[in-house]
Amino acid sequence: MHVHDHSADSPVLWLRLDPDMTLLRSTFIEQPDYQWQYQLRHERDVTAQMEAISALERYPTPATRLALTDTIENEQSYYKVRCRAAHCLTKVRVCCQAITGHVCALSHIVN
Fold first, then answer.
1. Which domain does 70 fall in, by range?
2. Is there a contact between 29 and 17 (Cβ–Cβ < 8 Å)?
3. Is residue 42 domain-resident?
4. What pLDDT is attached to residue 27?
5. 28 Cβ contact partners less than 8 Å away, ≥ 6 residues apart
6. Confidence of residue 7 (pLDDT cuts 50, 70, 90)
7. Selection from 37, 45, 46 nearest residue 65 by Cα
8. Is residue 28, in this structure, part of any structural domain at all?
9. How far apart, in whole angstroms, are the C-alpha atoms of residue 12 and residue 91?
10. Which DSSP category does 23 fall into?
11. pLDDT score, position 18
12. In a domain, 12, yes or no
């Protein structure tokens, strides 16, 4: 795990509230994109991965595209996580095109 991307002010890689889902309450966690990316890549809980993918839609950066691409290509990931990552990648890719003005090639097929 590469931790060189995160801020020196925050030793926390990512944050999860109520991972056992015992509270009947919706929560909104705001954290930097690198923490969502770490959560997506390294948390093995499917719910946490889905939360990270949903949050990453708000961060159309090359690092987000790479994290989503890595998830799509990881055959050990649950297929619904891979499908959600592919759907999110299309949204992030469109935002990146609008921001940078260039076309990103999408060459991944989700089995």
1. 33-100
2. yes
3. yes
4. 75
5. none
6. low
7. 37
8. no
9. 28
10. S
11. 75
12. no
Question: In the prediction, which pLDDT does 25 show?
Answer: 72
CA distance linking residue 24 with residue 13, whole number of Å: 26
Number of independent structural domains in the chain: 1
pLDDT at residue 4 in the model: 53
* pTM reported for the whole predicted model: 0.70
The answer to whether residue 56 is domain-embedded is: yes
Helical segments of 1-111, H only:
33-42, 46-56, 62-73, 79-100
Enter the tokens of residue 41.
């890549």
How far is 39 from 13, CA to CA, in rounded Å?
8
Up-side HSE of residue 62: CA atoms within 13 Å toward CB? 4
Inter-axis angle of helices 62-73 and 33-42, nearest 10: 10
